[in-house]
Amino acid sequence: MPTTAKICGLSTPDTVAAAVTGGASHVGFVFFAKSPRDVVPERAGSLATPDSVGRIGVFVDPDDALLAHAIASARLTGVQLHGDESPERAAAIGARYGVEIWKAVPVRTRADLDAARGFRGAVQRILYDAKTPKGTLPGGMGLRFDWRLLEGFVHPLPWALSGGLEASNVADATAITHAPIVDVSSGVERAPGIKDVGKIAAFLGTIGNL
Fold this sequence. Notes:
Layout: E1 4-7, H1 13-22, E2 26-30, H2 41-45, E3 54-59, H3 64-73, E4 78-81, H4 87-97, E5 100-107, E6 125-130, E7 159-162, H5 170-177, E8 181-184, E9 189-191, E10 194-195, H6 197-208
Parallel strand pairs: 1-2, 1-8, 2-3, 3-4, 4-5, 5-6, 6-7, 7-8
Antiparallel strand pairs: 9-10
Helix pairs in contact: 1-6
């Protein structure tokens, strides 16, 4: 199966258009006030995408009020949970709002991968991301983990790879991991929270040539 891509942390028409034109399977919008990529739901909702492109909202331990507002206003097809959400909480969100649920699993060691198994039956996709230092943002910092940790791992669920990806290394990442979806944010920016249409095009062009 070919690798596809999610371009995350989008907030402007030109960068969304670059993602769609370049062939991204998903676009991501961040709803987390501490992130430089935070966007209000109405703004995200104004950014048009075709029905074939998934619209994923990224949240960190969200309450129901934020979820309801963002899912409706931003027309989300999926929710990515990037905090300390339990399998029970993740399953409840999916059942309540009827959207696909992705759960981020922070990885530094092989043992960290085991957390994915706890979400079997609760979410539809696991996102393996680099574990960030305590007290920092849970993602979007350009950090990567050792992709070789995924070699031979039996994935309990459909999955995606994130953490430190950019046009210059995504081919190596997919060759090692065989990731079905790669998720990029800081790797296509010229400054934190400021996406670069040229970098988006280069990243997606690399994916298209794998």
